[in-house]
Design goal:
The protein is mostly beta strands. About 0% of the residues lie in helices and about 55% in strands. A hairpin with a 6-residue loop joins β4 and β5.
Amino acid sequence: MRLLLTLLFAFSLPLHTRVDPVQQRVPLQIGPEETLAATATLTDPSGSSRIVVWNTARVAHLLAPPVGLDPGELSAGLELGGFDGAGTIYATLVKSMELEAGGNETVPGLYPHNAFAPLYLKPCDAVTSPDFLPHIEHVAADAIYLTYESPDSTEVLDGDQTSDLAPYAVRLQGGACTLLGRASIRDVNGAFAVGFRGYLGQYIAPTDLDPDRQRYVAVRIHAGSLTELGPGVAMAVAQDGTAVGADAPPIHESETESANGSTETFSCCTPHAMLWHPDGTSVALAPAARSSIAYAIENAGHAHIAGGMLVDANGIHRAFLWIDGNLYLLDDVVHAAGWRFESVFAFGPHHQVFGVGTHNGTAAVFEVSAVTGS
């Protein structure tokens, strides 16, 4: 199978926003009539997030969080959850709180008329504490999938033997809340959901508690059963249950300044893109890359197409497609002047490829029409 690419379209980002090529959640979603939305980061010192929406004419506007901050709130950001069948956007409002206020808070909601409306959730009896933080992960025609993340204010000591503080994966449908498992969801496609869980020792724990010591395991949920796929995180799933992601979580490198003024850069993990077949076997998608992660997958007849990001030998982010065992860099097959393609995040209903990169040095979202031939 060979790759044929045609027609490149650019979606300009609003001023002072960017979409990073490395993400812990897939930041980009395609809605009805091929509208597009993405979680973008403000380039100001706050680093807060907003949702960018492009209409069918590829004109962008920003969705704003509710106006004003309450006492104890430092900032408010938005993270994209998805579109329902009518094209309404669902989002999670993330409030950064002062430490004495108990850490972050999250409020699931939607934008029926470009204004945030909280989604009043019927209490989920499976979730053992009101301190868990609901986060919308996926929206289907008649269901909303959420991760109830572990409370920010919770401290888990060495030797915890309960797993009581691990995240919950739930589905809200028809007024009922169904527990899918103790895990974090990342994608849903038909009857399949995928994500990951973290372990400290043999116990499931809050997944962001201690990345240096935690063991991360990708999971797939189907027909009421949760299956562990192997080390890492699953970020996307095809209709037949084939999943992609990486063998470690995509945690950004960060810097900390010591008492003597020196700066240290560290990261807990080096992810490498993986594909997990329904039969339990797995494939490394970009084994020669310094690091990589797959964010998207679709069925292409008897084969699969996966897309994501890899870091090459020079430390540069490069968008890739993996098709039936062959790895392609978009920069090498879409010879577009001024472009550098950094990450593939989604596939459209007509086999389009969506992702982020730079155009003449400016951050932008791209769409490439793609077909395969024999």
